[in-house]
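Final paragraph of the annual report: two paired records, presented back to back.
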Amino acid sequence: MCANYIPVTRNDLLLAHFGVQRDVKTELPTELLPQGMGSFIRLVNGQREFEAGVFGLLPAWRRELKHGRYTYNARCETVSTVASFKESWKRGLRCVIPAEAVFEEKYHEDHTHERWRIENEDGSPMGIAGVYSQWVEGGVEKFSYAMLTVNCDAHPFYSQFHEPGHEKRMPIFLAPGDYDEWMSCPLAQASRFFEMWAGPLVGNPAARPKVERARRREGEQSQAKPAKTPKRPPPEPPQQFGLF
């Protein structure tokens, strides 16, 4: 599951590879984690538009930002039935997420693991299939989004990632010529894009961003068992005094 990626922020890359331009007022991070502000592309009246939104889809019934920590990836097999995603799917709110690279965990025989950066072999940006939600808050239109993933147990490259014994999954990478069709085709035809990427990918170990290291420490601390409080000895009964 992809929880960390590098968004495309350069206007020249966005224009050349996705046909959109970024609002210069929209500040985006160099690396993105769930609950962060990222970007995606949607179709409005047949035209591509660049939008900024929360990475981690927030459905109408759960707008708290912390919910996005669990909804940054949507399984293509269940996107139409899982409560957090099904309304966006039903409404046809499909998008393309521009990424320069994605990060995954690679495990070793001794059960240690390291973060790997994965990208197209030719260095070109990736267009990832996604779904989004939109709402109006305080008179301002807001968005959130999630990546769609597909099983990749049989993928020659991507199957080396994720914890041993667990299902292997990868984001659904789209061919540039399929962007508009993915976002506009009838709902019944959208599943034809649920395929493993066949293009050449490369990967290398990469250092973790500071914010991820901090989150990992917080997680480890929250999972640690609290120290047992030593039991106090029972109070001694009050001293009894005789009347004689």
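The closing record of the year follows.
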Amino acid sequence: MSEPTFQWALIGPGSIAHRFAEAVARLDGCRLHAVCGRDAHRARQFAERWSQAGDPPVLAHTDPAAVMNDPAVDGVYVATPHGQHFEYVLAALQAGKAVLCEKSLVPNQEMGRRLVEASRAHRAFLMEAVWTRFLPIYQELAAWLRAGRIGALRGLQSSFCFPAPYDPDSRLFSPALAGGALLDVGIYNLTATRWVLQHALGEVPPLVDLQVKAALAPTGVDARLAVALDFGGGLVSQFHCAIDTFAPNTLQVLGESGAIVLPETFWEATRAQLLPARGMAETIERPFEINGFENEIREAMRCARAGEIESPVVPHAETLAVLGWMDRIRALAGVRSPFDDAFPPR
């Protein structure tokens, strides 16, 4: 007997939400049931774009309560600017809905703790949408690391930078919207660092030192960061993230007897290179089945259907650990947001 169709609601019909909607439309066993956005016209356009022949039309709402109170909704995908995630995720969890929320889950660790507490209190699934960890090429990366193909891990280098026009009111540069390079893109550098450490060493060692150099935008958010995470014994992960700079955006994993390179846009990579110190290089390709979002969506539905409140791939503790690192980095960079005053550490 087949399982009932998993019905998704989507909050925040922006550009990234189209990628989610495309994956849902092409996956078996699920459909987009409703979309909610502040602009009624934009919400209707999105709903019409992703309504499928033979299915009921996708509903369009401007009030999130319509989503939370709809018994047909099984899961909620939150794709608003991350400064708005907390209120929507909390409401969905309190309504007993499974939640897949874009990263960064929230602007600081204390807010994350409160959402994890709500997930546990209401027995509702919660996962930060770190889709990179579900990509086929990252499964190959993990296998190479576990097999010791590059010898002992020595270090990591990565970049995620893009030049955006300065707009003090945009989600990238506004403190009120939790702007800044770290929360927007630096999270990918951090989660990739932790992924590599977990599979190469079996754990993420504690930080022994953290060095941060920052260039702040006129609004006070971090426009550019250079970060070095020191795990002792000479093992360091260095990365740049920026919203005012261009970079090749690669991930390089350095080992005693070789290196692994994910060239260009490492967070959505489909290709990896194994470069041994001696011998021939090896290149593998692992394309997306749909657009890269499919496996995180499958995982969210699997967990929700099984009554689980977190995924072993992106568990709550992992999300909170990354948020803790980001809190420390922002503090060293001299960045403070309204969310830090509203949700100070307990």
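Residues 13 and 42 are 8 Å apart (CA to CA). This concludes the annual technical report; the extension proposal builds directly on these records.
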